[in-house]
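hiii so um. not sure if this is the right channel but i have a protein structure encoded as tokens and i wanna go backwards to a sequence. like what aa goes where. can anyone help
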């Protein structure tokens, strides 16, 4: 598969650069979806559009038997690209700064490879081109959550996704069984005091002082309220309050993010962060607290992860397969892996010749495009071999709803 994928590399580069040049934000990926659809049509692969608003799904293989899904996300970020490459974004304020253009090209490459072997597929491969990984809409849906709600996972038995990793060199992959990425939640607190002249502060209740107490107390939730072997992050990213230097502030708005891995720790931090906000009431003020749950943590199935790791070792060499680190970054692939056995793979995209990394979500992000056939081959080979290896076990017992 890797040799065949390298033959496709010029085509994959053209696809990736076209998507990179014309980025689209969450749930607005119309042109990207049209390019995906045209490519699938040219390959003779059946597909459906308008899934989860702007997503595309497609099928290869038999109408029955074990089914594995392969997923790529398509949306870009609201970042102004700072690059002089010929394929730089042509849309001001938008950029593929997270590698979703590469993910989409890799999955299209895997589709082309699998089409060549479709007669040998002892099952089915479902291709998921997903919108809106980067954003959760006003109704609480990311693209993956909406895909699940629309039943896209109902007819599959396992799912695999991948993500560019700018800290890993090209030709290297990283996997990890169990918890890999954190649940990503958001909170908002209004700390309410009582206005007074700054010269007569004793006549009011200073919301800034109350907010400072709340912020300091919240930091102890990680260091003193959860076990030291657990991981979590509470970040106050935004503070708004005050109107003048000589007026006691009567309202401060605090907002931030909470990251955790285990469901029980997530529940605890949500509850106890609200209890911390209540300090304002104990000091003569008041508060309002809201907590918005985002994507759950990515928890990889051990058996599937081990299987893909072995495939990666055979394609690239065992020395090129690493154990991925846990990260407090979030990913909505978690909505898939909490329903069915899933694995999420890091694909190295760093050019060793680069003087410095080009990190995700920055205006200089880029990839070494030799990574494109690596991702395509890993997806295709894993799907083909998984279907062959699980034919005797099908039908499976059903979904795994182990994590909340």
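sure thing!! here u go:
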């Amino acid at each position: 598969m890797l040799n065949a994928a390298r033959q496709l590399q010029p085509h994959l580069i053209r696809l990736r650069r076209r998507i990179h040049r014309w980025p689209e934000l969450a749930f607005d990926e119309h042109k990207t979806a049209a390019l995906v659809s045209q490519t699938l049509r040219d390959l003779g692969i059946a597909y459906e559009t308008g899934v989860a608003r702007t997503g595309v799904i497609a099928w290869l293989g038999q109408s029955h038997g074990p089914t594995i899904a392969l997923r790529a996300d398509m949306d870009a970020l609201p970042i102004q690209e700072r690059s002089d490459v010929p394929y730089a974004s042509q849309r001001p304020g938008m950029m593929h700064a997270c590698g979703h253009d590469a993910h989409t090209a890799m999955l299209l490459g895997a589709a082309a490879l699998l089409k060549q072997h479709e007669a040998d597929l002892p099952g089915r491969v479902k291709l998921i081109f997903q919108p809106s990984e980067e954003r959760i809409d006003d109704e609480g849906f990311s693209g993956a959550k909406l895909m699940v709600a629309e039943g896209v996972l109902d007819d599959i038995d396992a799912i695999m996704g991948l993500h560019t990793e700018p800290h890993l060199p090209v030709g290297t992959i990283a996997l990890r069984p169990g918890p890999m990425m954190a649940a990503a939640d958001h909170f908002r607190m209004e700390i309410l005091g009582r206005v007074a002249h700054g010269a007569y502060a004793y006549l009011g209740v200073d919301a800034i002082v109350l907010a400072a107490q709340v912020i300091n107390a919240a930091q102890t939730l990680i260091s003193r309220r959860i076990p030291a072997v657990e991981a979590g992050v509470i970040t106050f990213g935004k503070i708004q309050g005050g109107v003048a230097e000589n007026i006691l502030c009567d309202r401060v708005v605090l907002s931030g993010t909470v990251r955790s891995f285990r469901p029980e720790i997530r529940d605890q931090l949500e509850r106890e962060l609200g209890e911390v906000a209540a300090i304002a009431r104990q000091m003569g003020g008041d508060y309002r607290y809201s907590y918005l749950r985002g994507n759950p943590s990515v928890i990889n199935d051990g058996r599937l992860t081990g299987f893909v790791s072995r495939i990666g070792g055979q394609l690239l060499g065992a020395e090129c397969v690493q154990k991925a680190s846990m990260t407090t970054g979030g990913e909505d692939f978690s909505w898939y892996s909490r329903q069915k056995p899933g694995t999420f793979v890091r694909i190295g995209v760093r050019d060793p010749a680069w003087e410095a990394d080009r990190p995700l979500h920055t205006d200089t992000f880029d990839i070494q495009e030799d990574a494109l056939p690596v991702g395509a081959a890993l997806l295709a080979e894993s799907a083909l071999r998984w279907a062959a290896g699980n034919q005797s076990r099908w039908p499976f017992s059903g979904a795994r709803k182990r994590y909340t």
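oh and The radius of gyration is 24 Å.
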